[in-house]
């Protein structure tokens, strides 16, 4: 019997495999194949650790890998997965990994705002994971892919997890840790509706440089919810008819800062992280440590749609009083200009019929 794979990476002279089943500490067998898909090594016993990860033996001839529950299971060629080549290009200083895009809610405008915001904050590259997206969102992704700014990673449909979306999110986080090693010094792990915001005139990249001491493997940011009371417009025409405003310029009702380690988000050093959770690093490579970012310096502004999150809203009210907050003018004005420009390029407004 085989178990599903997500992706494979060459790390520390071995193959680290992301598996699509939540089998932490489960015994599995690595199966290694050459370019002709012939098995070249005896099945090697491995243990899933950390989450979704097994370490397989290295071989210069290895081109494909599978993971099976038993050493003698047959492996169809369709279940042999190619190994990601070792990255040899230039290393970025600051990149962003986005949690998987899924569901039916419109995403095109939030996606443009997300990318343009983090570009203005100093990000150089993005890894965006997707499961299901509509045509408008795909148009946006393709534009940034063609410009070399974004890599898009397809999220495997298969999983044995009961909480399927949460499981895919956790898989994505592990994938990002391995995929980013040697490619980026620092990586933000955030969702589509999250903006890590510095409470000064400095960019996020500048802030990372100012606090990123050699032993810090994670900068951990506390959260404030900015309540969204409606979905974004379904398409650019509807957006223009509604006044053409970006989400960060519309929503201002903001929660008190959440307690320490409550729904935090992270910017990490990938080579210092072994296990990544949704809200914090689970395991560091010694001697790495975490820097708990004071909320007076920076926070996550989470533009949370209140629909379906009534229980979360009640919890957020327990943190303290809500207040009106606004993004600084020197951030929001250039961001709006960039978003308007990209929308007009991608989805030109049709001239009215005379």
Automatic annotation (TrEMBL):
InterPro entries documented for this protein: Glyco_transf_92
Matching Pfam families: Glyco_transf_92
Keyword vocabulary terms for this entry: Glycosyltransferase, Membrane, Transferase, Transmembrane, Transmembrane helix
Position of the signal peptide: none
Domain of life: Eukaryota
Organism of provenance: Ancylostoma ceylanicum
Principal EC category: transferase
Similarity comment: family membership: Belongs to the glycosyltransferase 92 family.
Its EC number(s): 2.4.1.-
GO MF: glycosyltransferase activity
GO cellular component terms, semicolon-separated: cytoplasm; membrane
Subcellular localization: Membrane
Membrane topology: Single-pass membrane protein
First-listed, main subcellular location of the protein, grouped into a coarse class: membrane
Gene of this entry: Acey_s0417.g1111
Protein name: Glycosyltransferase family 92 protein
